[in-house]
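Form 12-C: Joint structure prediction
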Amino acid sequence: MNSAAVLDLSKSPHAVVRPVPPGRVEVADGFWAERMRSMRGHGLARQFEQCEVTGRLRNFERAAGRLEGKFEGRYYNDSDVYKWLEAASYALGRAPSAELQGCMDRVIDLIRAAQRPDGYINTYFSGSQASWRYRNLTDEHELYCMGHLIQAGVAHRRSTGSDRLFEVVVRAADHICETFGPEGRPEPDGHPGIELALVELARETGNDKYLKQAVFFLDQRGSDPPHLNGLHVLQDHAPVREQRDADGHSVRLTYLAAAMADAAMDTGEAELLAASVCLWESAYLRRAYVTGGLGSRYQGEAFGADYELPNDRAYAETCAAVGGIFWNARLLAATGEARYGDWLETALYNGALVGVSPDGGAYFYANPLAADPQPTPDDQGGVHSDGAQPTIGGHQRQPWYDTACCPPNIARLLLSLPGYAYGVSAGALWVHQYLPGRVEAALPDGASITLRVVTRYPWDGDVELVVEEAPDRPVELRVRVPSWADGASLEVDGVREPVEPGSYAGIRRVWPAETAVRLRLPMDVRLVASHSRVQANRGRVAIARGPLVYCIEAADHHESNVDALVLGPDSDLQASDEPDLLGGLTTIRGSAGVAVKRESDELYSRFDGGKPEPSGSTALTAIPYFAWANRAPGGMRVWIPYVDS
Amino acid sequence: MNSAAVLDLSKSPHAVVRPVPPGRVEVADGFWAERMRSMRGHGLARQFEQCEVTGRLRNFERAAGRLEGKFEGRYYNDSDVYKWLEAASYALGRAPSAELQGCMDRVIDLIRAAQRPDGYINTYFSGSQASWRYRNLTDEHELYCMGHLIQAGVAHRRSTGSDRLFEVVVRAADHICETFGPEGRPEPDGHPGIELALVELARETGNDKYLKQAVFFLDQRGSDPPHLNGLHVLQDHAPVREQRDADGHSVRLTYLAAAMADAAMDTGEAELLAASVCLWESAYLRRAYVTGGLGSRYQGEAFGADYELPNDRAYAETCAAVGGIFWNARLLAATGEARYGDWLETALYNGALVGVSPDGGAYFYANPLAADPQPTPDDQGGVHSDGAQPTIGGHQRQPWYDTACCPPNIARLLLSLPGYAYGVSAGALWVHQYLPGRVEAALPDGASITLRVVTRYPWDGDVELVVEEAPDRPVELRVRVPSWADGASLEVDGVREPVEPGSYAGIRRVWPAETAVRLRLPMDVRLVASHSRVQANRGRVAIARGPLVYCIEAADHHESNVDALVLGPDSDLQASDEPDLLGGLTTIRGSAGVAVKRESDELYSRFDGGKPEPSGSTALTAIPYFAWANRAPGGMRVWIPYVDS
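Section 2 - Result
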């Protein structure tokens, strides 16, 4: 029960840091507890409602022969139901809820009834469309959907101990293993996902065949002749072990590369891990938004070239930030390197969290870093145009999408979040993320260590880590010091320990009960600059504080267009706690220049020779990026011009 | 013969300025004569060759029953053959060529044989696919293709006097009028083009039914319920008379809005003209590149929002610049306003001309305003991915494209160019564009006026306009003074006439033979700034001289990455004639700062507080934008950072 809701590496021979199961993690009141509560209550209820009214559940009723009529919606809609179930399982694993349990049981009954006798399940390819099964793996997402089923079933079993969904999962997975493989059909799914699911199923069942099947699917990409038309957008242009650039559909790449690292922790294939690391370096060192968002292009929902990071037309799908968190979590477990924990944190507090409203019930699909208030027409030229909102204007949160991958994705992330906070290795407890509360971790040798964490993080940088109980021998406490934390300090019993931002600080010692470690992460307001090759950000800076990226929003700047605001050496930016704003935020206040409104309204005119001088100054308020678009509609900017006047 | 190859407004009651037929315009040696010669010779020959080898001509043979096998290529490929014929007709109208004539006759024979007895013609919807005819007007471009056939037939008849192609055209047009209309099928074509064609066919035949049919098609957009799914990208979201923003596919919008202005000159419908003007203001005052390129998005090949003008990911399809020229020419004829002549000139010398190599045989489809040399993967996520080259790197000219709309489009523009240079109105000769040579224009009352133009434009701003012969009564000479020409002067017989940039200067007088008018357009090197809302160009300037926009290219800057070059007050930019460079160019030379290469290679880092100071200086050479990508591959920038250090 509650063993390892997300990633159970307890028996993975090549893992370096094994996650502490979320059932061992208490989350005290604070930033994340609040957000988990909203999602568990209002969020899951609204999502379930949407699954009902949009026909996602009716599709299962039809496939089960309990309802007449045609399939409703898109052919991959089953996956939303599975992701909701996964999220609900995590919620149920943390606290009972008869209401939630009732909804889940109803859905699980439907799934059981909809599964074909041979284990196949997809409600689109049912009834008169049953013969279309597997006709087009490139586009039709059947294995992707079953991958989400498997993840839901594993989560459900781990959280509840019940096998009712897990039985379906094993039948579906066995069907897949019988159908695809060296002796069977060779194609991978155009949309990865099944690979991650099968790796975890192998861990849950102890049956290696699922791991082999996952590696088989991974290695079917880039074959000659190709199975997926050799398309870059489907990561089919080269074998995954030889891929070096994060190209193509960004969500798909995160799922694919996460599975590569994941499988490597069980198979020990250094080549698979190395290729995942190489793709990570391409994605995060050259192609990621400062928010941890991924995907620069609406077209193909794809990564762009190196340093191609437009702000207004950033795609940065919520699912890509979430997929990036899955990927970083696996690379962190596989290597123990702090850079993965750093980007996980960045994506968590910014690029992923922005995808959901404070009440858990409204979502973003694309996440631009600049928006203008004008309503502009939707643009039907590409995929997922319903959810993509491919305009720079009028970008608003929505209660649901026709392609609704993002809402249940952010739900399953938030409700399993405690599983990302801690890890263990031989004789060491790792603190990856700072959540107030308590962890009772089992070290690999079975010894127990209990740590209490007291902090107002991310609003405050003081983190008190109190070892309540520990074995009576030296244990190392490894604490991630984020790369942004210049000047951080760590103190045990009044003694300073050396720290280096961007790495884990390790303290190995015997821990008498109630030994307190004090970590101080400086929460000064930082200005961030981009690599000079990021054209969109030349001459601009972003405001950050701790792990949070900030933005300026029209709702706080009624006098001036946010586009006219300019920072400079006199901006005097200061953090300010605002307990009544959007459930409590720390804003950043200061003064901004207001760029001269050119007399001419011309699109192009003769350059007047000088830089745009601020014409006056005004009060500036920046709010965390994750919090934007929860008040009145209006413009927003993350990157703000900086003029050194 | 040679009457009005492009736009015959001689009988259009509501035209303000009627184009002088290109047959009345001699083009002396110089900038355009050279380019027309390349296109007429090498360019048309290579394009014909491509039509042969890619199966475009074989498709006609198959439709004619002379060849077995399946249709090759894309369903709209007939249009390339028609556009080639249109271009070849203009060429033949200017000078005989047995070889060209032979190719054309062969193609025309094939077209005659491929046409169905009822007048329908499309080689894709032939043979066993004949029953698919008109099954999907939204996507399948049949009326679009027939529109290009009609334009070709009109051009062929006007240039050669032959009816061999024109007979096909009339049959096709009659078939369309019988099939579509208030009594027939109601849909317009998803890709406009038929409307422009039918308006001109009405002029050529004197038969009003084609004009009515054109207006019918125009007004079918935006109907309720919609014919084209109400899509913005197809300009079907509102009736065209009510559309206010240049939205959707940019080439399609230019053809559509051009037809609105065109039809209005014959029908007198002020509402149609006003809507076209309103769309033009949206397109050119808020959504156009400084090059006259249109289309900010790869996705949907579409316009962006106001001021959304990315440089590296500019789509700016060559066809959109060409379509913009057709549109500006019609608005200029309909209103006599100089702003349309100005943008026509900008698009002609920059956004359109960049689409073809100096030898006429290699082309661009998309036209970014910034490119990096890295080869990046092609991206199959959207339409026309073959031609679109949707990456910022490795942007190279191609001999042809699977979707080959651009090559014959630039050919038909260049070979009909003299038709865009002059116009007449009651008692007035208008000089829209400066081509060295001679025009013998018939004024509306039949009187003749002959003007000799001597100039090295665009390299030199001195334009001598000599009235060789004129009626023995006052005639007005109206000369466009471009909006960029601050300080321009105009002199007749030593007397200065008032001029205002951005308008036509009018001189009304009796013109004794050989009266010389001297127009001096200052050819100082200008720096151009963008509206502050163009995020991509904040802190940057473009170099321009006369009508030409310049760029910096790697081939001239071996020491430094073009991305590192920075302009400033000391750049001392000077024009320099380079007769041996790419067939003779005026380059602009000066010095540039070289931006500090940040020590850190990080994507994001703590802002160091100051502006990027140039670390040294280097020689800078800018070449006209149209001339880039004709030497070694490498980076290119139009917009260059400007630092006022």
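Section 3 - Comments
Residues 215 and 263 of chain A are 7 Å apart (CA to CA). Confidence is low (pLDDT under 50) at residues 375-393 of chain A.
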